[in-house]
Structure formats: C-alpha cells, structure tokens
Amino acid sequence: xxxxxxxxxxxxxxxxxxxxxxxxxxxxxxxxxxxxxxxxxxxxxxxxxxxxxxxxxxxxxxxxxxxxxxxxxxxxxxxxxxxxxxxx
Length: 88
Prior knowledge:
By secondary structure, the chain is an all-alpha fold. The protein has helices at residues 5-22, 24-30, 34-40, 45-48, 56-81.
C-alpha cells in the first residue's frame, strides 16, 4: 500500500484534532489568534491551526473532502514540479 501525502496529512490532522478536542489547553495553544500570535511571537500557529478542528463533525467533513481533492492536487503538483525524489 502506498501512503500518499494526502493520507499522511489526514492521519496527522485526525490525531491532532482528536487530541485537541479532548484537551482544551492544546486546542487553545494551536488556535489561530492574530493578537496572541503578534503579542507572543507564536508564529507556529500559522501551521498548527491547520491541523486542529473544533469537533468531530467538522473534522470528518473536512477530511472526507480533502481525501477526494488531495489526490487531484498531488497529481497536478507532481505533473508541474515532478514527483518526490525526481519522479521515482
């Protein structure tokens, strides 16, 4: 079985969201809050906020949609820039 980048991102997002839904402090730490980002220089929130979701319904629908569109995006990027490791 080939693990695509889409599947890897779905797994990482599901784990992060599951942990965040069950741990309010982690969820709060990852949320995209511009004032806190600027005040505390927490620039990593630009990335971490993309891996958390408010609840399981939100997570399911986003990952369901991402599953179908992610493969197409991977194909377009591979065509335009070449595959991973030069097309291997």
